[in-house]
Amino acid sequence: MANPLTRREALLGALTLAASQAVRAETAAVAAVAMDAGVQFGSAFDREVFSDAPYRALIAAECRAGALENSLKFDWLKPRGSKPDYTHADRLIDFAQTHGIALRGTALIWNDWEPDWLKALSRRDAAYVFDQHISETAGRFAGRIAAWDVVNEPFFPLHGRPGGFRKGVWFDALGATYVERAFRRAAAADPKALLILNEAFCEQNDAWGTAIRPLLAGLVRSLKDAGVRLDGVGFQGHLKPHLPHDYSAFADYLRGIAGLGATLHITELDVDDSSFPDAIPERDARVAETLTRFLDPVLRVARLRSVTLWHLSDRYSWYRSVPWYGDAVAKHGGRRDRKARSHVFDDQLRPKPAWAALRTAFEKARVR
Ligand code: XIL
After folding, report:
1. I need a labelling partner for 368 at 20 to 30 A (CA). Which of 27, 122, 292, 348 fits?
2. Residue 366 confidence (pLDDT)
């Protein structure tokens, strides 16, 4: 293996093996249950799998599918210039292959997290980098990446751009046609990977979600009409239970998207727990209940093919590093300095009620 374990890691691994075997006996079947329901299951992960042996074991045991949280993003591959650094991506992809985890790469194109050198380019040069990045990246990993989020988060109506598109370097260089262009290039560079259009917020029934849903459906329809190879549509599913939502209506919306000729994927599932009480048992119960309410109708949608969590454990919660989490908690009367518990394993890698909820939802879906 490219990364031999240090003695300390090996020892830690051995010590935790007994404990984690008990956990795994209880948990390893989730992906199998999901598979019986026709759904590939897994989680996002990244470089922490190399420094945290117990977590590495958990990811290997739980995931048959997965996504690299960051290491294939433009700003992580090319932080200082167009010369890529593939070191981490290569190691992570090797790790996934060793453990039979089918990986989704996210994202070839995203109008966010653009490095300064990219923002400083002329539109013409940015368009060149756009084409080159897709061909180079999708081409290099062809055969090793099962699916690509070709475009992430196309819409952001608040930006005031025509068509509701998210502004950013790529949109500003190419206009709304950037999406079609990205898919055509990705298809040419990797004829076998599943090509996905990934979007956020669609499960919300607030002004934001209801604005985005028809925009996304329209985009899928126009790509299909143009003969573009678009295999799947991804829905992030960072659930915000404090916002208006109707997950049955969302499931109907998914059926409509499937009717346009795309498979369906829940790509970044977790629960924003900022509105839930500080008390851990109650908070954990509410996170679990939110997952149940979401998954029950969604797993009944026939063309749903994968569910990927946005991290397995609270230990690596991205909500713990976003600047707005403390404010959101305080707004709902909670302690600003508390830590998010948005995921299905706790900080000690013990399964939480959310894990049981997930498993039960897949069990019910098996007989759908
Ligand atoms: C987030 C990662 O979790 C963070 O570590 C990173 O700093 C920023 O990106 N929607 C997406 C994901 O599409 O790529 C984001 O991931 C979370 C929101």
Report:
1. 27
2. 84
Taking Cα atoms as reference points, which of 11, 124, 139 lies closest to residue 86? Answer: 139
Whether residue 152 has its Cβ less than 6 Å from ligand 1: yes
Mean pLDDT, residues 66-91 taken together: 98
- 257 C-alpha vs ligand 1 centroid, how far in Å? 24
Question: Distance from the CA of 237 to the center of ligand 1, in angstroms?
Answer: 12
Asked if omega into 37 is within 30° of 0 (cis), the reply is no
Please tell me if the CB atom of residue 40 comes closer than 6 angstroms to any atom of ligand 1.
Answer: no
CA angle 182-185-191, nearest 5°? 120
DSSP strands (E only) in 145-297: 147-152, 194-199, 232-235, 238-239, 263-271
Distance CA 69, CA 259 (A): 29
Burial label for 2, CB within 10 Å (0-12, 13-18, 19+), is exposed
Phi, psi of 35, rounded to the nearest 5 degrees: -60, -40
